[in-house]
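hey can u run this one w/ adenosine-5'-diphosphate bound, need the structure tokens asap thx
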Amino acid sequence: MAKTIIRVPASSANIGPGFDVLGIGLNLFLILELEVDPLLASTDKFNCSISYEGEGSENVPLTSDRNLITKTALFVLRCNGINQFPKTTKIHVKNPIPLGRGLGSSGAAVVAGVMLANQVGKLGFSKQRCLDYCLMIERHPDNITAAMIGGFTGSYLRKLTDCEVALVHQPLDEMLAPHAPAIQAPLDIGTHVKYNWNPAIKCIAIIPQFEVPTSESRQVLPTEYSRPDVIFNLQRLAVLTTAVGAEKPDPQVIYNSMQDKLHQPYRKVLIPGLTEILSGFTPQSHAGLLGICLSGAGPTILCLATNNFERIADDIIVRFKKEGVTCVWKLLEPAVEGATVENL
Ligand SMILES: Nc1ncnc2c1ncn2[C@@H]1O[C@H](COP(=O)(O)OP(=O)(O)O)[C@@H](O)[C@H]1O
Ligand SMILES: N[C@@H](CCOP(=O)(O)O)C(=O)O
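ok here u go:
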């Protein structure tokens, strides 16, 4: 039986000043092993049997209309005139991306779901068209773009027409519900670029052992910002996107460019020790460190560094421990290719 492997990277969004704009695809991959076997029996209403290992295995639902990956795939299939998976679709999910930690697990699940639909429904979508569907579901483009395209990306969403707004801005649960009306994703919702990245720069993820759902972490943010705060971030964003691609990365420039006034200061209420960690770890205190920020909506801390990885991670873990928080850490690097589909 032919097998298809869909691989989607984790991602770290924002990277300091790039709230809802920047993302890095990381080499920690959500993997879907897919087979379609007409002789296989399944009790699933939509013909998809799911098995799952790794992060989330205790809680993630395994019926196709409730699991985020297959729910997304069913939505995309339905939007394209197909009401169920082909008989019988079997997927095995291997997930090393921790859930609710700011490493883009939901973005990866949505990207995987859209690529799954593209594959089983033979829809023939390009990555750009797949992005349209992804961006209807996860409505900030930073994780989705980094996971789909790979590397260090910047993206924005275009202004939608009134009709498109009515289609897209429905509550997500209603849009993905199995009997909701089929809709076509507006074309070219997102625009992205991929920046240069000096491969000597690695990403250290220090991952606290508690979850911060992204929806809750967005609720603590203000709805309006002052002009000085917006300018503060824009200036740093402009410098950071070029500074990490330089032949000789400048630690002080990168460190200063990763400062933020739009999301991190507000998220400290959800993450014990956040302010102290972000201000206490510098290129001066830790040789090799280039910059430090909250990864996505948190609680993971992302450090960019060229060496001294273990020392940097251990010291942050000790600092979190003072707050009663235990962590694990991973040394990662940009996943340059983004999401891939391989037919074996
Ligand atoms: N592999 C997966 N399979 C099914 N659902 C997933 C998967 N990964 C993430 N999710 C869903 O996404 C939620 C986490 O999303 P979110 O709060 O945005 O955090 P993150 O920062 O990890 O993206 C999980 O609670 C779960 O509902
Ligand atoms: N820009 C978003 C990014 C959320 O990323 P996640 O990995 O935490 O889902 C935000 O900061 O809310």
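Residues 3-193+335-343 form a domain with the Ribosomal Protein S5; domain 2 fold (CATH 3.30.230.10). anyway lmk if its weird
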